[in-house]
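Re: beginner question about structure tokens

> Can someone show what the tokenized structure looks like for a real chain? I only ever see the sequence side.

Sure, here's an example I had lying around. Input first:
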Amino acid sequence: MQQSRADILSSLQSDILRLQGFKSPGNTTARLNLGLMDAAFPHGVFPLGAIHEFLPAGEEDIAATSGFVASLLSNVTGANGIALWISTSRTLFPPALKTFGISPERFIFIDLKKEKDVWWAVEEGLKCTSVAAVVGEMPTLDFTSSRRLQLAVEESCVTGFVIRPHSQKLTTTACVSRWKIASLPGEVVDDLPGVGYPQWRVELQRVRNGKPGTWDVKWMEGQLKTIAEKVLHRFEPEERKAG
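And the corresponding structure tokens:
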């Protein structure tokens, strides 16, 4: 029986989404339970085996960006997964990972002197099927470089997180998503002194074949919880760029 054009296009789209890390709804291992944010992704599933780009809203939000990435990693790495964190000037304080239910011992921290060495190490790490995720801190990322990273994870199924602190300008990249993170005052518990539960304003600026949006979220009781959805903008699903 000959397939219709619509069936062929639907099958091709499913294949493309699968290669980009968008799993079918039946694959429960891909679900991160991100609350209202889940609706932004095809099938309502955060894309694993893909490259994600994270931008601090300002210099004061670099630590907040690392915190939000850590909250995602707590689900991506699972109970026993290993991750790499590669940078020239690491913004993460390893013991802080315990806040997000992650043992620092499950991370390999690689501190290098030059940004080009970070890029090389990230690409090599993404090719390693023995790790669950790779985090790279590098201000500069162009389309060619990001495309090479994306091709690497399409083979290995490792999830990549690129944090861009001190980035001077935005460029077009092949990353599946781009996020902008700003810190919010922590939620104090029972008027006790301290910083309280971490809270962020999370702006998903672009996501391939998905719906960007902005949310206020907090890390509480071992998971991300949506405080409110800020409909600052809403676009149609982004079309996959040719080439």
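Each token stands for a local structural state, so reading them left to right follows the chain. Residues 24-29, 233-243 have pLDDT under 50 and may be disordered.
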